[in-house]
Structures are given as structure tokens and as C-alpha cells.
Amino acid sequence: xxSSTNIKNKFRRNFRLILAVLIISFCNIISVKADESSYRGFxxxxxxxNFMEKEIALKSFQRQVDIVYEVGLTEETxxxxxxxxxTLIIGNSAEKNHFSKSDGVVLNAKKLSAQKPILLHEFLHSxxxxxxxxxxxxxxxxxxxxxxxxxxxxxxxxxxxxxxxxEFFACSGTAxxxxxxxxxxxxxxxxxxxxxxxxxxxxxxxxxxxxxxIAN
Length: 216
Prior knowledge:
Blueprint: H1 4-34, E1 36-39, E2 42-45, H2 51-70, H3 75-81, E3 86-89, E4 98-100, E5 104-108, H4 118-132, H5 136-150, H6 165-178, H7 188-194, H8 196-205
Parallel strand pairs: 2-3, 3-5
Antiparallel strand pairs: 1-2, 4-5
């Protein structure tokens, strides 16, 4: 028959084991909650990291969301964009900011600038993928405007912006909405002057009647 001492030791071991399991489970719950952040209706997920890195990264993410709001998109367009998955990469990584059908929008916190509309640009790629790619009329239109752009002498058509119709839409659209960007076509006014029909067409796709609805 086990002695009272053995029974107590066994109880203590079992208690410690149960306590350890509870602590691990609690930590996992915290981790699940900590790897998601919502700001103005946009949700970003990220791998758990140290507090300081996370705070800096989330401020960068929030600034990108503010830019998206500041350009004056309609509630309908914003509601669509809020459904898109966003992954925020925190820490040292060579990952580029991008959009893909499988990953959604991927942002590298180390490569986010408070002055550049990076999230807006990737959102336009997602808009193209969801709204234009499988719409014959819209796809025909953007392909025609892309071909027209290739003939515009004012553009540097060897630039990344003219890689394909998708990139053309995202880059020119970012310029239209943000007014001035760091790559071709650089300026809203440049698009409006050289491709006035495309300028109006783009605003229509964004649900904007005219240029006056652009906030910037």
C-alpha cells in the first residue's frame, strides 16, 4: 500500500503537470490574439514578435490604412478592400510588398514608408484581380488603355509600370488617387493630360463621378 508521502509526491507531480499544460494553453491563446490587429476595419495578421517591433510595425500599417482612407474612396470600394487578407511581416525579411491571389496583400513592415501609398497600390492589384480580370468588358478596356499608354511619348514605357496591364492599372491608379508617386507615371496631372478617357474610366471604376471626389 502506497505511503502517504508517495501519494503526496504523486499528487504534486500531477498538479505541476496540469499547471504546466494550463500555462502553455493560456500562452497559446494570447499568441493567437496577439497575431491579429484591426485598424479602421482593416485586419492584418502577423507572426508573434517582441513588443517593440510589433508596435513600430503596427504604426506603419496604420499609416498605410490612413492613406487609403485619405484619397476619398467610396464606402463600397472600402468595404470590398476590407475583405482582403493582409499579412504583415515583422522582423528581418527580404520579402517584397506584393499582392497575389493565394496570399492576398503582403506587407513587409521594414519596407513601408509613411510617405508612399504602398498598401493602396497593392489594393489596386487586388481590385484588378477581383473586378477586372474576369470581366470581359473591363479587361478589354484596360488592355486598350494600356496599349494607348505604350504610345504616349510622355511615358517611360520601359519602366516597371508598363510591365503589363495589371501593373499599369495599379501604378497609374495610385498616381491618380494619391496625386504624386515615386514611379511612372509619377503625377495625376500627367495621366489626365495624356489619357483623359482612361482618367475618367478609372474614376468610374472607383465609384467616383469626377476628379473633385479625390481627397488629395
